[in-house]
Amino acid sequence: MATLAFNHEEIAARELRSELYELDGISRAAVEAHYKLYEGYVNKRNEILRKLAEVEVSSANQVYSEIRALKVDLTFAIGGVKNHEIYFAHLGGGGGDPEGAIATLIERDFGGVAGWRADLKATGMAGRGWAWTAYDWDE
Q: What are the angstrom distances between the C-alpha of 26 and each of 34, 37, 65, 83, 124?
């Protein structure tokens, strides 16, 4: 039986900064709920990688196969891990509207901050609950 040839290390959820529980505008319960989601993504990522270490590579198929399903779910789990790590790192920042070059691009592409926020929120709701604003250097 041939299996995937990769090594992985399990990760653990990072500890929260204690000041996140005292922020204005977000309750302790909301912070704890997001942290619980984060822990779930970390655990699911580790579980999927353990399963991938055992999967038979000859069963790979683009319509359905265990390896395909696991790889799709792995991208979602890792996205959830990284999304929450960035989320927790930015909580408690100064906030405010974008400034500088990104503000100019938002104005150009969305007609302003209100249009950008509406588009970002709709994108998050239409997807799996989160969306990113990114800049493509090639376009």
A: 11, 16, 42, 18, 19
